[in-house]
Amino acid sequence: MKQHTYNVQVDWTGNRGEGTKTYKGYGREHVIASQGKPQIHGSSDPSFRGDPARYNPEDLLVASLSACHMLWYLHLCAVNNVTVIEYSDAASGVMSENEDGSGEFVQVTLKPKVKIAAGGNRDRALELHREAHRLCFIARSVKFPVEVEGDLSFAATA
Question: Is 93:62 a contact under the CB 8 Å cutoff?
């Protein structure tokens, strides 16, 4: 079995001079980095005293699921003679917070809108969403349901 390793560096940048001396006294800002890639400026969700202008781990989890599905879908379309012209996804996730402050995601819904070349095989293009979902590394790794509600249209003929 092949194994792949992913290394990231996460550095907290929210020390406002007193560290975590008080709950309200520190920032949740952090920087995510991986060698040779642009940094991602993160924070916690605004509900947990985070900066709304920065990505939070929950955003990134939903984005990871969406991107993984998209990349598998594009691959499968390419090798199955389905020409994708446009792809976008308005993905959303639901997290439930428990009394003790812990929580977990209970669902993520992907809503990919795909435009394929005129004359393409609509049924095959829709079926490939199921296959992409089955193959997605991230979706296979989470314990909550990931739903895919694909929408398909055709490009205008020339």
Answer: yes
Number of residues in the chain: 158
Residue 75: CB partners within 8 Å, gap ≥ 6? 132
DSSP string, 70-84: HHHHHHHHHHTT--E
pLDDT(158) > 90: no
Tokens of 88: 């976008």
Q: pLDDT tens digits, residue range 54-73?
A: 999 999 999 999 999 999 99
Q: Contact 34/7 with Cβ under 8 angstroms? A: yes
The strand pairing partners of 113, in sequence order, are 88, 151
DSSP state at residue 55: B
Q: What is the pLDDT at residue 134?
A: 97
d(CA 46, CA 40): 17
Closest CA to 126 of 116, 135, 117: 116
pTM attached to this predicted model: 0.91
